[in-house]
Amino acid sequence: MGRSIFITVVLLLQWAGFSSAQAQQSGDIRLVGGSHDYEGRVEIYRNTVWGTVCDDRWNPEQRNNHANENAEVVCRQLGHSGGTSVPRAQFGQGRGQIWMDEVRCKGDEVRLDACPFNGFGLHDCDHSEDVGVSCDVPNSAPAFSPATLTRSIAENTAASANVGAAIPAATDADRDPLTYSMGGADAASFEFDAGTRQLTTKSGVAYDHEAKSSYTVTVTADDGTATGAATVTISVTDVAEPPSAPSAPAVTAPSGTTASLAVSWSAPANAGRPAITGYGVQYRAGASGSWTAWSHSGTGTSATITGLTASTAHQVRVRAANDEGTSSWSAAGSGTTGAPTPPPTPVASFAATSSSAGEGAGTRNVRVNL
User: Fold this and answer.
1) CA geometry: angle at 102 spanning 97 and 104, to 5°?
2) How far is the C-alpha of 359 from the C-alpha of 350, rounded, in Å?
3) Which of 164, 256, 291, 302 could bond to 264 as cystine, CB 3.0-4.6 Å?
4) Residue 318 CB: number of other CB atoms within 10 A?
5) Phi then psi dihedrals of residue 20, to 5 deg
C-alpha cells in the first residue's frame, strides 16, 4: 500500500511539472515581480517555504549599508555579473514568511545564505521593507531582420517621393528605446525621417539611370550602448527617354544646282538622356502630300538631297534617335531648287560693204548673220 501511494505521489508531481532535477534546495533564491527575469523582489527558499528578505543594510542611503555587496552576491548566485539593490518593496510586497534581516555580505560569497545575517526567521520588519535587486545583464544590440534591404525608384523621380516602404523597425531584446539615423556612401542623395524610418528622394538630386543606376545607404538603430545596421540598396529603374525633336532645319539650294537642296539642323538639347545615335530625314515637293525618306547615316547634322525637280519648292523635316527611341519630327524647313540657266538670246549682226549709188539706184541684197 505504501509503495502504491509513493508511485501515485511521484506521478502527480511529474504531471504538475516537477522532477527530482527541478526540486528546490535550501538557500536557493529567486526574483519575483519584476518586468524582466533579471530584476524583482528577492526571495529565498528554506524548509519548503519561499520567504522574503528585509531591506535593512540594503539601502545605499543608510549608514553602514552593504547594499552593493548584498546585491552583487544575489545577482552572481543567479548567474549575472552584478547588480544594484532596490529597497522598500518597489517590486511589490511579499506574503507570509520573512526569512532574512540585517544581511551583511562582504561581496565574495557565492550564496546569499553564506553572508552574515540575524538568522533565519529573525527580523523586526514587515513586507513593506521587502528588498529587491536589479541585476546587470549584457546589453543586447538592436538588430534588423533582414539586415539587407532593397528599394527602387523610377528614373527622374521628383523630390520628396517615398523610396518604397518604410524601413522595418529593429528589434532589441532588452526593450531599450531606439533612435534611428541614416548614413553610408550615398546618404547625401536621400532624406530620412528618423521617426517613421521612411526614405524619400531629395531636392536637387537627378536620379538618372544612365549616370548612376544604384545607390547604397545604411540605416542604423542605436540603443544608447550598441548599434545595429541595415544596408539598403536603391535601384534606379530605367525609363525610356527618346531625344527631343530638333528645331526646323535650314534648307537652301546649292549655288549652280537645279536638282538638289542642302539641309542643316542643330542637335536638340539632350541632357540626362542617352546619347543621340542618328537622325532621320524626309522631304516632299510642295506643302502637302506624302513624305519621302532620304538616307542619312551617323550623327552629322547636315545632308544634301539630290534628284529633285528644278525650280520647285520643297519641305524637309528631321528627327533624332537614340538607344531608347526616336523623337517626334521637327517642324518643316522650306527651300526651292535652283532654276535652269536659260539659252542665250539671238543677236543679229549685219555685214555690209561700203558703196555708193547714184540717184535712182535700185534694190540691193544684204547678208545677215545670226
Assistant:
1) 125
2) 24
3) 302
4) 28
5) -65, -30
**Rounded distance, CA 237 to CA 214, Å?**
9
- How many CB atoms within 10 Å of residue 82? 15
The label of the residue with cell 520643297 reads 314
Beta strands 276-285 and 148-154, pairing class: unpaired
Convert the pLDDT of each residue in 208-261 to its tens digit: 998 999 999 999 999 999 999 999 999 999 998 899 999 999 999 999 999 999
Residue 4: pLDDT over 60 = no
Report which secondary-structure segment, H or E, holds 11: helix 2-15
For the record, the C-alpha cell of 309 comes out as: 525637280
What cell does 224 get? Answer: 544608447
Rounded Cα distance, 87 and 77, in Å: 19
> Over the stretch 61-100, which tens digit does the pLDDT of each residue have?
888 999 999 999 999 999 998 999 999 999 999 999 999 9
| Type of residue at 366 | V
Torsion of CA 31, 37, 39, 44, to 10 degrees: 10
Give bridge partners of residue 319 from the DSSP assignment.
280
